[in-house]
Amino acid sequence: MRLLRVALTVVLAVLLGFWAYERLDTVEISVGEPLVEFVEAGSGFGLVAIVIAVGFVVARPWALLALVGPVLSLAYAEIQGERGSDGVEPLTSAPSIVRLFILGLLLLLGVGVGRAAAAALRE
User: Fold this and answer.
1) Lower CB count within 10 Å: N or C terminus of the chain?
2) Which residues contact 61 (CB under 8 A, 6 or more apart)?
3) Judging by beta carbons within 10 Å of its beta carbon (0-12, 13-18, 19+), is residue 22 exposed, middle or buried?
């Protein structure tokens, strides 16, 4: 089971890395309703469901290591001299930081539900 958890985390890191690199030119995310704009900005409910599902299956806090994928992807884009939608370096732009924060919260939501389900099954 541990190997499955590690594999899912690595696969999600790669998927999120590609996703973050493709989202460099998307519209900025405002502070008002970030999750709604996150979904409407082209992420779709599919990505949200995948992130929560991986957090649920892994059910360990180290599932947050999947965020290394988008961070490395954005760092690569910054090294290549690309700019984000707001003209700032991709790694430090507000939309990128908000997206990483939302992805982290979704992962933790899945982890929390997964741990609660595992505890309920043990009882």
Assistant:
1) C
2) 108, 111
3) exposed
DSSP code of residue 27 = P
Q: Kindly report each contact of residues 102-105 with a partner whose C-beta sits within 8 Å and lies 24 or more positions away, as own/partner.
A: 102/34, 102/35, 102/38, 103/16, 103/51, 103/67, 103/70, 104/64, 104/67
* pLDDT tens profile 9-52: 999 999 989 888 877 766 555 555 555 555 555 556 778 888 99
Other Cβ atoms closer than 10 A to 97: 13
Structure tokens at 117: 């389900």
Judge whether 95 and 28 are in contact, CB under 8 Å. yes
Query: pLDDT digit string (tens) for 76-93?
Result: 988 988 876 667 788 887
Q: Pull the structure tokens for residue 122.
A: 């043990």
Nearest alpha-carbon partner for 89 in 97, 105, 14: 97
